[in-house]
Design a protein that fits this description.
With about 375 residues, the chain is an alpha+beta fold. The chain is built from twelve helices and 17 strands. A six-stranded mixed beta sheet has the order 11-16-14-15-12-13. A four-stranded antiparallel beta sheet has the order 2-8-5-6. A three-stranded mixed beta sheet has the order 4-3-7. Strand 12 (about 245-250) and strand 13 form a beta hairpin. The chain is elongated and about 70 Å long.
């Protein structure tokens, strides 16, 4: 097939195949680790592109030296060529800014050209067609996985006329901007929620009763005074790919079983990890022998209120975790966890307020998923 299934009506010509190296100049970043500075010229690596890791900085002198052989500019395309983790190989990013920066050897540079529209090409690189082509030329058995620059140059791209490229590029650029704005909105809402949680549980923000009177002073209690804590009896090998019930194990990942051990409202903690954050759950579930469940809450305790407060206790659980390679939780961490408990009326007001924030975040995440699905559909139909 040399034409997409869905096109703007004014275009009818077949798409043509080119090797990337015949379209433009390719290079990669410096092969030497620079001398990082607290501030200066931004220096990009794979992690900056794939995980939004903080940008590092180099001196202006080092920037000038590096950029003699590799000078990224606006409308160029960056592409990760050495893997730093799962799905981190072959990820493109359009340079949309004018300020100077440098790149590391792990990042390839595709210079802009009059032969293609950069907005179009960066989206084409994201297609499954090009991903297969890219991976076929990559060294997937190497550690880390990578693609050499001479092999990157031989990868095939399929281009329509420049006029159609520009129209497609603008169309997908607008879609991508909508997705980015929606993601930024979600990130802002999550930051606002974090801020509210900190202020509420530091009691810097207090609610009042229906008759505009302050609620009573909060009590200081241990976690094991407001609920019971237990571990499960299942093993990782017990999990079933399409099981009917949630199975919580030592990791943050959710697995499944065809049988359940408990039917209750609970707060679940993974038994191992680099961080320990709670997960609220209500219903039937199974539990790994090294995962923890907080359950059987006292009559005057709202479980979800405890869940929201426990979001602030990661440092406490890390303090009591043991093991140098993978930190592991012990029951002592739960038995020594201090909580501040208001009257049940204030618990309910706080829980309802934070739940309303969660519902709004979930609604915005659904909108993001819809936008991403729409873009995925259009990419499948409008590219070849």
């Amino acid at each position: 097939m040399k034409a997409p299934k869905l096109r703007f009506t004014e275009f009818h010509d077949e798409w043509q195949s080119f090797t990337l190296g015949n379209l433009t100049e390719l290079s990669d970043g410096t092969h030497f680790t620079p001398n990082y500075k607290p501030s200066g010229i931004p220096f990009w690596s794979v992690e900056t592109i794939t995980t939004n890791a903080p940008v590092k900085y180099i001196s202006e002198e080092e920037y000038k030296e590096i950029n003699k052989r590799c000078n990224p500019q606006k409308n160029d395309i960056l592409i990760t060529r050495i893997s730093s983790g799962i799905n981190s190989l072959g990820v493109p990013k359009l340079v949309e800014w004018d300020t100077p920066f440098s790149i590391y050897v792990s990042v390839g540079l595709i210079k802009s050209s009059k032969l293609f529209d950069s907005n179009f090409l960066v989206e084409y690189i994201k297609t499954s067609t090009y991903k297969r082509e890219f991976l076929s030329k990559s060294l997937l058995t190497a550690s880390p996985k990578k693609i050499n620059m001479n092999n990157l140059a031989t990868t095939l791209v399929k281009l329509p006329s420049l006029r159609e490229q520009k129209k497609l590029g603008n169309f997908f650029s607008l879609l991508e901007k909508k997705i980015q704005l929606q993601q930024e909105k979600i990130d802002l809402l999550k930051e606002q929620k974090k801020g509210y949680i900190h202020k509420i549980f530091k009691q810097e923000l207090r609610f009042k009763s229906a008759d505009d009177k302050p609620y009573p002073k909060w009590d200081n209690l241990l976690l094991n005074q407001v609920a019971s804590i237990k571990t499960g009896d299942k093993n990782v090998k017990d999990n079933v790919a399409n099981g009917s019930y949630h199975f919580f194990d030592r990791s943050e990942d959710i697995k499944y079983l065809n049988e359940y051990s408990f039917n209750e409202e609970a707060i679940i903690y993974p038994g191992e990890g680099s961080r320990f954050l709670p997960r609220y759950f209500s219903g039937k579930y199974a539990l790994h022998q090294r995962a923890y469940s907080i359950y059987n809450f006292k009559e005057n305790i709202i479980p979800k209120f405890i869940y929201y407060q426990l979001l602030l206790k990661n440092r406490h659980f890390l303090k009591f975790a043991v093991g140098s390679t993978v930190p592991s939780l012990r029951m002592q961490a739960f038995n020594t966890c201090n909580l501040q408990i208001p009257c049940i009326e204030e618990q309910r007001v706080i829980t309802d307020f934070l739940c309303s924030l969660d519902k709004n975040i979930s609604l915005q995440e659904d909108k993001l998923t819809l936008l991403q699905s729409q873009k995925k559909y259009f990419m499948q139909q409008m590219f070849i």
